Fold this sequence. Notes:
Order of helices and strands: HHHHHHHHHHHHHHHHHHEEHHHHHHHH
Protein name: Tetratricopeptide repeat protein 39B
Radius of gyration: 26 Å
Pfam families: Iml2-TPR_39 (PF10300)
Structural class: mainly alpha
Amino acid sequence: MATHQAKSKASPDVEEEDDFHDAFDVEPIAEGDMDLDTALSEAKLAINYFFNNKFYEARSLLRPWAHTSMYHSVGNCVFAFLEAMLTFEHQHISEASEALKLCLHVCNSHRKKSSITESIGKTFKRSNYDQYTDMEAHAELCSAEALLLKAMLTFVEDETLTSLIKGGMKIRTCFNSYKECNNILNQRNWQNESSKIHFESGVRMGMGTFNLMISLLPGRVIKLLEFIGFSGNKQVGMQDLVAGVRMSGIRQVLCVMTLLGYHLIVCYVLSHQEGDLQFCDEMLNDQLQMYPEGVWFLFFKGRLEFMKGNLDDSLYWYKKSWRSQDVWPQFHHLCFWELLWVNCLKLDWREATMFATYLVERSKWSRTIYTYQKAVIMMMINPNEISKTDLDTIEQLMRDAPKYKQRIAGKSLPMEKFAVKKTERFFAQQRQLTLPCIELMYLWNTFKILGKHFTIGDNILKLIEKALNDINLKSNVSKYDADNKALILLLKGACLRQMKSPLHSMKQVSSLVCCLCKCLEAVISLNKEIKEDMYIVPYAIVEMGLLYADQGQKENAIAALEDAKKNYTGYSLESRLHFRIHTALTELKGKHEYVTSAAD
């Protein structure tokens, strides 16, 4: 049992190095150790507290033993890491960094000690994992988890190219650590079944997440990662994570969170695919029974209803999540972001403006994007209802947005760069932009929801058709006419592609497809006339490719996607489109790189 009489120790002075210490380089912590079963039991209780919004109770349980118990230390790091990510404040980032140094020290003190001779011997023969105690095996896993958090924190600690490289190398170290844990899982003779289940749930979460995330990256990035030892397979990753959900291990809820994040956010933001909403529904029903007021699962429930197109239901769950806790007000910002876009789809521009204002005033993530978004939402307000004060506010927001632009590793964030260009266009076009809020909906991939209920898509389509009619009736010629018309046609085509629901008759679908093709072909024909919005044509070609895919024309779909991928470059939001192209081509070609599963 835990030695509760042990003296509380100060944080060890662990120096930052390019590479992490080997296990045998760290002096063990001799006093205050907690046995593994007790540590797992208390960690499980802390998880229960955490997901029921009892953050103080969870942290109070973990912090006293963070200097000696690896599970308490990892849990303490998760708190510090989340606080750093939610606030982006230097103090919290520094505290998280120190907590992670301590955690790695604690984990290393419990890892299997190897002599120099034994370490050299590992190069030539397979390790005998039966020589590992349960504590030593779990120390490897906790170390891998801390390495991952440390690597991710590196990207925000110092926004330079050097930090990006260091972060990438640390992720590689972490990936190799998880592979070693996978070997321990499969090659060790486990005597304690409970210990094995907890260990396996962690391996499946780690390996599953790596496989899933790497598989989503564009091909050229994957080739680079494979060169330095990474590989990813979506199917294997999904299998591991689902297996982790089905077991009662301590990291079961983290597997749930990963799958919910993938199916409800990643799929809809980075690809053309739909998430498995039925599976998400099943997981959320189970989790909300255990954590009925948990901020995370209330949020995901709101996201699930949003992706189903149930806008009023999504508002209910997002607001419930927002109001469920005040310990981390930064989490409210995630809810505000979602509430903003739900209200945009409801065409409630005033309500959307309110949440946009909250983000501008309270969030530090990207004030450039928030400021631009608030301006373009206000521009959607009915001209008969908009006031002089509103117009002055819009103009000031457009002037302010570029002031907050960030640079990371010497480069601007793509969406911030896009927003700044649009503010310049606003003033170049006599304080006008063409459907700027609908354009953002499209770029954030919110258009996927337009096909869920006909009225949602039809309301957006009416706005697009009005803009198209206005530009066709326009008498005076301006420099950006081709850009604006191409944008409207792209938005109309993308909207129609989402609206060709199976609920429509074959005649209706045929008519929609015909209209859609004409829109996208018209966009492509304007290619040479477009002055600035060069992204529109490759995006239109991808829409055409996805239309071919929807109709079962596989070869035409692949040809269009390859055309957009290979023949267009240097346009805004290019990487964002390449994510969508990659997932579509992977699905069409059936290519899946292989990596070992935790089950093998």
